[in-house]
From TrEMBL:
Cellular component annotations (GO), alphabetically ordered: cytosol
PANTHER family: HTH-TYPE TRANSCRIPTIONAL REGULATOR YBHD, LYSR FAMILY TRANSCRIPTIONAL REGULATOR
One example GO MF annotation: DNA-binding transcription factor activity
Cross-referenced Pfam families: HTH_1, LysR_substrate
Protein name, UniProt field: DNA-binding transcriptional regulator, LysR family
Entry-linked PROSITE patterns: HTH_LYSR
Length: 302
């Protein structure tokens, strides 16, 4: 397999169009077609077929795509690592994260990173754990700063970032603002930020199970949408769970913490990466900045 063959295949797979792939690569459509056919001949496998919706990947194509993306990403990181060691501090760092980090430690980490490496491009986005794992594997993310994964596959590694406690949050002046026990909140309407598939492993379920309580019957779901959750918690009688640092950050928006006497779950946040991928100097620098930001601003054990 040649680099140009993988590039043509990945571009065509992403766009589902040979013409669009040719535009991205700056070559003609027949050139893209010829290059992909060379790759198919080298692998002795059909990778894509034409359909009414454009290009469709075959089973072999679907198997190749994440590995081709990973190879191209690793090649780019290799070039960037050499350039960064030479002192040409350019390249890119791609980070997936979640609100508990994005709204607390991340801004200070970015400021520190910018002072150290002003020319390196940063790509930051909010991701779910399944998305993060898939994108670490295909090479489109360098690291993911998200909650700790209990059953992590051997191809990934995680380093603890910090541990915090969950708290129950509601708007200031909520009718239940003065309750002291978890069972007093069973009739309230709660909002969940996890989908139905992940709810059995959620903090909320663990919280009620730990105290032998049934789940609240009124559950409103907003999977992976913190903005929806924040809007409803701050302006309606819906309640939710936030990490302690996140709740403190949101207090100026009219969010208050319920003073529940029962012990609430702890939450571990970690930095995930691929075990076989050596980080570039820029990725190492960003991780160091994030760890320092957590250490300085969260008063938690790193």
């Amino acid at each position: 397999m040649k680099l140009q063959q993988l590039q043509a295949f990945v571009a065509a797979a992403h766009h589902r169009s040979l013409r669009a792939a040719a535009r991205e690569l700056g070559v003609t459509q027949p050139a893209v077609t010829h290059t992909i056919r060379e790759l198919e001949n080298a692998l002795n496998a059909e990778l894509m077929v034409r359909s009414v919706r454009g290009i469709e990947l075959t089973a072999c194509g679907l198997a190749l795509l994440p590995r081709a993306e990973q190879l191209l990403g690793d090649m780019q990181r290799t070039l960037e690592a050499v350039e960064q060691v030479k002192g040409e501090l350019a390249g890119k760092v791609s980070v997936g994260t979640m609100p508990s980090i994005a709204l607390t430690a991340l801004p200070q980490a970015v400021l520190a990173f910018r002072r150290a490496m002003p020319r390196v491009n940063l790509h930051l986005e909010e991701v779910t754990v399944p998305d993060a794992v898939a994108r670490l594997r295909n090479g489109t993310l360098d690291i993911a700063a998200i909650h700790h994964v209990q059953a992590l596959d051997s191809d990934l590694v995680q380093v603890q970032l910090y541990s915090t406690q969950f708290v129950i949050v509601m708007r200031a002046g909520h009718p239940l603002a003065n309750v002291k026990h978890l069972h007093e909140l069973l009739d309230a309407e709660w909002i969940l930020t996890v989908g139905a598939d992940h709810f059995p492993h959620s903090v909320m379920k663990a919280m009620f199970d730990a105290h032998g309580l049934p789940l609240p019957k009124r559950l409103l779901r907003a999977p992976s949408s913190f903005s929806v959750t924040l809007g409803l918690v701050s302006q309606t009688d819906v309640i939710s769970c936030f990490t302690g640092p996140l709740a403190a950050m949101m207090a100026p928006l009219g969010i208050q913490v319920a003073q529940i006497e029962e012990a609430l779950p702890h939450y571990e946040l970690s930095i995930l990466s691929r075990r076989d991928l050596l980080p570039t100097p820029a990725v190492k620098q960003f991780v160091a900045c994030l760890q320092e930001a957590v250490s300085k601003s969260r008063n938690v054990a790193v």
